[in-house]
Amino acid sequence: MKKIEAIIKPFVLDPVKDALKEIEIYGMTVTEVKGFGQQKGHTELYRGAEYQIDFVPKTRIEIVVPDAKVEAAIEAICQAAGSGKIGDGKIFVSPVETAIRIRTGERGESAL
Amino acid sequence: MKKIEAIIKPFVLDPVKDALKEIEIYGMTVTEVKGFGQQKGHTELYRGAEYQIDFVPKTRIEIVVPDAKVEAAIEAICQAAGSGKIGDGKIFVSPVETAIRIRTGERGESAL
Amino acid sequence: MKKIEAIIKPFVLDPVKDALKEIEIYGMTVTEVKGFGQQKGHTELYRGAEYQIDFVPKTRIEIVVPDAKVEAAIEAICQAAGSGKIGDGKIFVSPVETAIRIRTGERGESAL
Amino acid sequence: MKRGLTFLSLLVALPWAAYAGPADSGDTAWILTSTALVLFMTLPGLALFYGGLVGSKNVLSVLMQCFAITSLVSLLWLAGLYSVAFAEGNGFMGGFSKAMFAGMGTQSLTGTIPEAAFALFQLTFAVITPALIVGAFAERMKFSAMLIFSGLWVAVVYAPVTHWVWGGGWLGEMGLLDFAGGTVVHITAGVAALVAALVVGPRRTFPRTSTPPHNMTMTVTGAGMLWVGWFGFNGGSALGANGSSAMAMLVTHISAAAGSLAWMALEWRKFGKPSVLGIVTGMVAGLGTITPACGFVGPGGALLIGLIAGVVCFNATNLIKVRLKIDDSLDVFPVHGVGGIIGTLMAGFFASTELGVFSGFGFGKGIESLGQQLMVQATGVLATGVYAGVVSFGLFKLTDALVGLRVDEEQEVMGLDLTQHEERGYIL
Amino acid sequence: MKRGLTFLSLLVALPWAAYAGPADSGDTAWILTSTALVLFMTLPGLALFYGGLVGSKNVLSVLMQCFAITSLVSLLWLAGLYSVAFAEGNGFMGGFSKAMFAGMGTQSLTGTIPEAAFALFQLTFAVITPALIVGAFAERMKFSAMLIFSGLWVAVVYAPVTHWVWGGGWLGEMGLLDFAGGTVVHITAGVAALVAALVVGPRRTFPRTSTPPHNMTMTVTGAGMLWVGWFGFNGGSALGANGSSAMAMLVTHISAAAGSLAWMALEWRKFGKPSVLGIVTGMVAGLGTITPACGFVGPGGALLIGLIAGVVCFNATNLIKVRLKIDDSLDVFPVHGVGGIIGTLMAGFFASTELGVFSGFGFGKGIESLGQQLMVQATGVLATGVYAGVVSFGLFKLTDALVGLRVDEEQEVMGLDLTQHEERGYIL
Amino acid sequence: MKRGLTFLSLLVALPWAAYAGPADSGDTAWILTSTALVLFMTLPGLALFYGGLVGSKNVLSVLMQCFAITSLVSLLWLAGLYSVAFAEGNGFMGGFSKAMFAGMGTQSLTGTIPEAAFALFQLTFAVITPALIVGAFAERMKFSAMLIFSGLWVAVVYAPVTHWVWGGGWLGEMGLLDFAGGTVVHITAGVAALVAALVVGPRRTFPRTSTPPHNMTMTVTGAGMLWVGWFGFNGGSALGANGSSAMAMLVTHISAAAGSLAWMALEWRKFGKPSVLGIVTGMVAGLGTITPACGFVGPGGALLIGLIAGVVCFNATNLIKVRLKIDDSLDVFPVHGVGGIIGTLMAGFFASTELGVFSGFGFGKGIESLGQQLMVQATGVLATGVYAGVVSFGLFKLTDALVGLRVDEEQEVMGLDLTQHEERGYIL
Ligand SMILES: Nc1ncnc2c1ncn2[C@@H]1O[C@H](COP(=O)(O)OP(=O)(O)O)[C@@H](O)[C@H]1O
Ligand SMILES: Nc1ncnc2c1ncn2[C@@H]1O[C@H](COP(=O)(O)OP(=O)(O)O)[C@@H](O)[C@H]1O
Ligand SMILES: Nc1ncnc2c1ncn2[C@@H]1O[C@H](COP(=O)(O)OP(=O)(O)O)[C@@H](O)[C@H]1O
């Protein structure tokens, strides 16, 4: 079981969600985050004083999937979130040992 | 050392926190997130136009615990967060290699 | 490749970011979170009624780095975020299997 | 005094619309302005003041309740309640001769102002009174129940009590001093709020884990609007632009300031820190308490009234919420109810012309002594309080039987905004 | 009736500034107050009402547009547009004799009030009308384009149409009843909004994934301010403090309340839940619709006008947005345009003195029958609607040629606040 | 001119309360309304304007300061400051004969209005002036220190200076033109703000990483309220409803619009984008600058005054904050102080009746030439500026000695809301 964490641009959340649905990944958890990377922030001016805003608003999607679906999920996300422009974001894959569904106590892949 | 990540309903945060305290888990980090899963979102209507809100507000609790406490923690969370209704949430367990307490530089379980 | 997750006090975000930049870590993702630990929350009073606020505002920095940079990053964060006071926060290190840059599809360390 | 009683004597002495000369343009200008100010107190003033104090999942429900009450009561006022309050009738209620504002043209006068201005000005009072009660049952009442209760309450409590005091009824006749609504507005609403809290029952989280105010900036914004709007409420109650309205505004302002500082000082001493919620609550206490008195007392009296208001309402709030654990969610009774009671009593006292720098402008018509005036004031307090309490209880029970008062637990947890109105306050 | 027409007859009958006695202080007080109330409708009223309805990344752009329009139109009004609207001229436009407020001293009068008060009161109308249009092209228009369009539009549409109706022009002469701006304000703005939506085109996300309102509390706050401010808009249009202004305010209030409840009821029935956005939209519909009628109809008429406004505008909104899929973002046309049209027609109807409890105060000068009055009203609706539509279309095309109307896709995605103004609404 | 000076001549010529006929109802209506408008400027207007500009952890502290100042100054005004400002005395201060509003009944008049209205109207000016200073030391001042300083400052700076200019004192006698408070309000507050910034010292994050405004929508809301409320501030300063008040309002509005557009244009050129904070700051500059002049200049003069205000204050802000790196947090000095200075000077200039389309309504009493008037204006600027500067410095030092001016570093980092008031602005 793997956790796939994707940091994407906020406005591609809907397409990414739809792309994941198509490969039958229904569960996901989304967080609003601020990113720092090659894509630069911007400057805001308030009464002539400059405020350098280094962070760019990003959305973080977290999905835990069976090993078998990892590649498909990566593919789907890249497809839906890629515009070819700097700041499209990253995907990180990391191991998850188990998952539990709180409602039933089920463990493992059937809990996803 | 493991990281336990639980996605729960926002209003059970307090009971869950209390349940963890009882088994002497005091440290935790909480994030407000939006979830997507079997529990469906809702529709909002503004002047007759429908807005389908797919995401449900959820709370994510993250605790890093020594291996010995993993089962007890899972148990405590399931107990406090479970209502038997769809949307109660998930728990994910994943490996953590080390923890450092910034204040002292301590590493390992004593840093928790 | 490792993921370094640091839970720090919100107002040291800028120094931490600068310290990481100095050791040439440019990419990071930041989330506003609420923490619970030894540092206690506070009480708010509204018309004489007490509200115990258990959670302290914290900032979570997440950086994925090549194995070689892990120690330097930990060092830099401890340096910039440590004040010696309770609540300075924690760093957690965990394994990441791979990273993908959405824009290009690159994988592994070159995607960071 | 004479000026102060313009309104009362008018209603008592003149056959309606007997006189039809031109309106005084200055008096009219001020009452039209006051009308705008009093509507402003409810929308958006009170709505914001209350809205900020609830959880963010219930903010729209509060705003919605204030809006719906405003609209509903306005139409009921047109339909017949203005008539019940102000048309000729007996000592207990007016007749229906003015239903649908019958006979009201652009030439009809009430005193020196157009009757249309008078009717609309009074309408804004009828609107804000039930809106005040909303604070007591916030975060748990069904919208439909709120609507039914408010409509009935205005008809059965507010309109008749208005007749008693201002419409030529028995309390006014008796010489009750209530310039701008200590009994009519604050006691009736405050007592109804206490009944509401008891009948509807506490929020499911009370007092264990109840949520703090979600947006204090909204509450403070509303508070500022209330202070400003109250100038119209009290100053407009002179029904003209003259020395009496100016003095009413001046003493209103002094009392608000004194109430604010008193509450702030008590908080500072008792809890170690003064809070902005404290200071604005003291302001409302000062304003509510001076309301019945503002046409009869001088600046020195107003200072004492404000200070006393701050101290008494501060302790009343503590008593009700912390000690008695009654979930009058936004403290309507301890602030408005208690303020109205002590204000009505103090109006009788500080109206006396023999208090030196604390003197007022004299007792009610036909009243000779301080003791006599205080008896009348106490009668007014008791009569309006008991009537409002008993009838409000009945109306809540009736409403409960009709549609049920509370939302179910799941809805309360999810919040009224989504479950009652399918909307959310903020999507930032 | 007489009072109601004060304004019109004045403009027609009196050579300007011929009379220079002292102003009536009461009338002056009320118009100065009304001026403040109408400015309040735009800033911050309308700005908040609209601002809350857009996404949080565009909120400042809306506020900025309202502020910039206010400032720009104010200077244009000084420069020459007051003169175009109100100086002597022909039936279609005034001359330039009053440019730079020439000849206006502290002694110059318009009727019983200082001309400076009249000019400023009218200025606030000129400001809010183009600000209303902003709702149609929100979230996608370039700031520069907005500025150019608004300036031109006020000059070429608003000022002349004002002359037609209130400045001694052909529609006023014909006996058109438009007390406070059904044609002048709501039809011109509403039709321009429809044209804007069609010419500028929909937001890129419309209707697939458009974002819901980001801050309903802001919208409701603005709505409350609009209701209060409208008292100045309609009540001030009597240009004095008298029975006519009082009655105008009263019927305005009744119509707002009726519109609110009508919309709420329809939503409740159709969608299962009443919403606060619904009730405040109904309120605006009720207010916009009574605007042309408020000096001519009685309370009974106002009740019907408000109810009809709620029902018709509710359905119009549905038609335009859901069925025809026209992205008039904040529903300016179905609420203001449609409200202005039906209100102008109903003004003619409910002005009749022969409708029993629904009677009004009589037809326009020289008009004998209901049929004749309705013909005049229909002429007013058509003439102002068609003129506003055609000229607005031309002005949008011209602006497009000059600077382009829309921001590019990336800017639309990032939001206008950052890309047009380098600021963000909230950093909580 | 005559009308414009009503107020001054009154104070000079009439023995107080010598006349006791009935008040003019129209004049009274307008001053009561203006009073409400000026209070509205502070609560919630200025509170929101300032509150939005600070970080979200300090928003309540700003709101609290505005509320506490309002309450405190109101009681001090009652206690004796009204008397210091307006009772008979010498050229430098009034006596204490009107302490506790002694002798003020419902029949007492000031000119054509009740003295209670005059005293309350002036009270609202006394309230807003120290509230303006709050912007200079925002985000770091102790609440207790703020309270002590503000109380002392109103007593020792504001009340006497008011006497000098409006209370029959030496500057008024000399013929100083200051219609609504260029010297009394804006120069005294602006200079005190500069002193505050220097004595209290910069925020610990300034200028390295200071936080941008946390809620621009709040600031813009407050700005709208300030614009509206300023109608009462300037228009009410005529102390009646007449051609002079109407003209004062008209030129106030023109100057606000011109200041807004000037600032917007400069930003657009210099930084590439116009911002909403820019346009509203220009508005405040235009309003502050026209304040001393508004009773003496015509619309053409107002246009120039507004444009110059925008340009000068824009550059002054840049100079103070960016170049001199003085942390006058919310730019009180460059906007209000500088605006007050240039406005007072320009009042002297544009009062001239010989400037063609830019003419005003004539010089001060007994002043014959432009040069002489300008000397008087310069004297007023210098005297009030130097006095305010020196005394404010002393008061800050005194307060520092008593309780300390600043919170400690940890409190500054955590924010004043939690550490001074144990509350938070938002829990969304
Ligand atoms: N090493 C990293 N660790 C964690 N998050 C990262 C890392 N590098 C980038 N990110 C996240 O990914 C986002 C996009 O990265 P960026 O370098 O701007 O563009 P690109 O996706 O084109 O490489 C960043 O804003 C940040 O949130
Ligand atoms: N595969 C997944 N990966 C990450 N988060 C998930 C996953 N599945 C569910 N979640 C999270 O858990 C929440 C609850 O899941 P849901 O399917 O609605 O109900 P249940 O807990 O009854 O299975 C979701 O809202 C989402 O935040
Ligand atoms: N076991 C844990 N798992 C996850 N987060 C933790 C854990 N312990 C502490 N934290 C986070 O670290 C923050 C700081 O911890 P705390 O115990 O207050 O102080 P210190 O850093 O001095 O040990 C907490 O507020 C919480 O967010």
From TrEMBL, chains A, B, C:
Oligomer and partners: Homotrimer.
Swiss-Prot/TrEMBL keywords: Nucleotide-binding, Phosphoprotein, Transcription, Transcription regulation
Pfam name, any one: P-II
Protein name: Transcriptional regulator
Alphabetized PANTHER family for the sequence: NITROGEN REGULATORY PROTEIN P-II, NITROGEN REGULATORY PROTEIN P-II HOMOLOG
Organism: Candidatus Lambdaproteobacteria bacterium RIFOXYD2_FULL_50_16
Gene Ontology MF annotations: ATP binding; enzyme regulator activity
Keyword Transmembrane helix among record annotations: no
TrEMBL record, chains D, E, F:
Membrane-related topology note: Multi-pass membrane protein
Domain of life the protein comes from: Bacteria
One Pfam family of this chain: Ammonium_transp
InterPro entries linked: Ammonium/urea_transptr, Ammonium_transpt, Ammonium_transpt_CS, NH4_transpt_AmtB-like_dom
Localization per Swiss-Prot or TrEMBL: Cell membrane; Membrane
Gene Ontology CC terms, in alphabetical order: plasma membrane
Segments forming domain Ammonium transporter AmtB-like: 29-426
SUPFAM superfamilies in alphabetical order: Ammonium transporter (SSF111352)
Keyword hit for Transmembrane: yes
MF terms in GO: ammonium channel activity
Protein keywords: Ammonia transport, Membrane, Signal, Transmembrane, Transmembrane helix, Transport
Signal sequence, start to end: 1-20
Transmembrane segments: 30-50, 62-85, 116-138, 145-167, 179-201, 213-233, 245-264, 276-298, 304-320, 332-351, 374-396
Family: Belongs to the ammonia transporter channel (TC 1.A.11.2) family.
Protein name as it appears in the record: Ammonium transporter
Organism of this sequence: Candidatus Lambdaproteobacteria bacterium RIFOXYD2_FULL_50_16
